Give the backbone structure.
Amino acid sequence: MEISYLLIIAFMFMLAIIDLTVGVSNDAVNFLSSAVGSKAAKLRTVLLVASIGVFVGAAFSSGMMDIARHGIFQPQYFYFSEVMCIFLAVVISDVFLLDLFNSLGLPTSTTVSMVFELLGASFIIAIIKMASGTMDGSIVDLLNTDKALTMIISIFLSVAIAFVFGLIVQWISRLIFTFHFKKNLSSKIGIFGGIAVTAILYFMLIKGLKGSTLVPAEVKAFIEENTAMLLLASFVVFTVLMQILHWFKVNVLKIVVLIGTFSLALAFAGNDLVNFIGVTLAGLSSFQDFTANAGGVAADQFLMTSLQESAKTPVYFLVGAGAVMVFALCTSKKAKKVLQTSINLSSKSNDENDMFGSSPLARNIVRVTTNMVTAVSRKMPQNAKDWINKRFTPVEEREDVAFDLVRASVNLVLAGLLIAVGTSMKLPLSTTYVTFMVGMGSSLADRAWGRESAVYRVTGVVAVIGGWFITAGAAFILAALVATIMFYGGLVAMYIMIALVIYLLIHSHLSYNKKKSNENEDNKMQTIMSSDNKEEVWTVLQEHAAETLSHTLSFSAETYKVLFDAFARDDHRPLRSSLLKIEDEKGLMKKMRRYETRGMQRIDQSLAFERSTWYHLCTNSCQQMLNTLTRIGKPMKEHAENSFSPLSQQYLEEFTPFCKDIVQTLVDINKIIATNDYSTAEEVSGRAKDLKHALANLRKTQTMRLHKSSGSLRMDFVYLNLIQESHELLSEVRNLLRGGNKFFSKAE
């Protein structure tokens, strides 16, 4: 029996290490975005500072471990077998949930997942105990409902609090410093730096030392008794120090950003470490108590009263976890992508902010807010409006700088403080939620949410918050389901679930590698965005555009054939999947066009003026080709799903040669674009023109059939639509060939 549970503990530790790595790779990079987005230091320096913060935060995080032990349920009423069922259900559900949400591209949070998984598993085990008659009392006796409710409310209140504080603090900071802050630092930077560093010091004293087992009790008592005096002294010392550094031409804002990065990294490690190893360590503590004190009592008869005690996490576990997190942070290949997403959402640029699209809710929110702001503005004196607008007049900065050091300082210091306050109260705030919402609030205050981007940013915020609520419900239900299966199935069910998790991890790893191999197409665009050599930019831009057009042509040829073949077989599944792929391709095409248009802005002006017409002709043709495929596929899908009469043998034999010729034309033009060899362009274009004429004649024939038909017209209409859209597809591909010949020719 003990061996079986020991293997389960080992498995939980394996998942804890994986969670540490994945968590840092996907979530922890949020605290890097401000320093990287503002270019406060080189990436290597930022990573070094953040790594130190993560390691220190992990070493001081033992106080939060109590949440997994007795923060959700009352352990003195649960037996060892039941507690292990709860803990294992949590770690297994976490893997399933994260894999599901990552596959769907939905945002999630490890904090919300852990809290609601614990709540779901504990709730269902408590219900089973009460239903079986082994426990007298109510659900309130078994669950720590007050504490659970407090944690849940704190998690979701932190969303609104972080946004509002980010908005207010950044608005005040911008009024004080303006965007021309370099001219306004002499008399203000000392006080600003003193407040910022003192605030960070306060949070590190309260959060870092209060929950640490490494600091002697006497030191903690002294700090607690003299907190006000220490903070006042710190404010005076750091204000003077920052002012002196400014006089010696040291950029104090960069120092504040780096200290803020350290503090937020420390807060992340201290707050989120419990999400990764808290449940596993609680399971280990339960196993140690059972093996040492059970004295022959069965696992389903030994009460886990020991979990009522506060966690005394061994230092080597915390140090080891910190080392794993630092290693993951410095070696993560996902960090760059996650960083870019976070930076884009709060950037002053509008080019990347339609990543979430537009939604009716976001449009209504923007419309109502705009009307309210307009109404308030009308009541304000003109002098006050002019003064405020002058303070918010932006300045031109480097294109690779997403926002300035003032906003970066506010983001880091404020997010760290909010997380620290929650952590000091042992409330599991989500660092992702707080950091994201502070960034959104500060970007709104900074007027980065222009009329061209506001609806997209609001849609993004709504999508993220909606994902958080979905995470909560999904975590509760999934953990409850897994716990039920394992409770009734015993050790056999536990090992089956473990096998499923191992399979899922392997499958996810293989899927990620495949996905990663398909995400390398943006690398060349990094050269376009960073190089100042106009000739190099033009060369890379042509190569990237050729790859984009070639990819679209290849996709169109393959999809066109799949659509016709599936319709001929009366198989609706390939039709449905093809339409989904077409929508994905449209999104990719839109993204690539945006990148490449920005690249066109960086080349020689006369060359851009000469080639831009042909470039946009090519991209418009590609977009229209995808739209044509959609118009072909939708009627086919509807026809097949409704089980209407399949394509007749006459139509099949009649159009099959056309399908082959159209696909071959797309393949030939793709070869011309990919190789940049236009020696056969005229001949291929001529064949496409002849094919268009043949389709026009077929269209006339089909129109005559419609007039003479006395049966069902559904198939006749779908077939006519196929002919018409195929004719349009050839027109667009000929335009693409003509535009490519002009755009890719050598510059004179």
User: Anything to note?
Assistant: The mean pLDDT is 81. The domain at 525-743 is CATH 1.20.58.220 (Methane Monooxygenase Hydroxylase; Chain G, domain 1).
